[in-house]
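Morning F.,

Quick status update on the modeling queue. The single chain you submitted on Monday has been processed. Sequence for confirmation:
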Amino acid sequence: MRRVVGHDPVRRRWLLAAAGGLVLGGCAAPPRIGVGPAGQAFERTGRFAVSVNYFGGRQEAVQGGFAWHDTARVLTLDLANPLGSTLARIRVTPGRAVLTRSDGSTESAPHPDALVEQVLGSPIPVAGLRDWLRGRSGDDPVSGLESDAEGRPTVFAQHGWRVQLSRYDALGPRLLQMNRNDANRTLSVRLVVDA
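Structure tokens below.
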């Protein structure tokens, strides 16, 4: 199992939370978030993996489980360590995004992408996942769009990310791979949705 490497504890915590915005590797997922009657929310659980490779050779990586609960008005994302213990919760409501860590400390911003940039120091499209997890590219412009035989998007670029969606079920893709090259690093986020 990979561990987060680096010396900045705030950055490490957020890399984990940013993973929350994002992704998967392979272990236990947290239990489903029990809010509201079944059928009113879009829910996905699974595993994530996030890795950052700096051009100087330094690497950071984190993996674990996630539970996604989206009512369209409120998005709640729980991130768990590989053993299933919740590490952080991200709650997004109109005009506000709040990250709560397992120790009770919080950070907030007006938008989930701004929250990630504030904590991690780089933009990560947490908001894009609301569409991508459903197998949609959303309203913002995309380039290089490719689709499968059923017209579902499989590859596209959006907001500086190369997004690959595959293994579709009735709700959307069960495998999401997102990659980005910045000036001094490459970022990779992988989400695997439970069957």
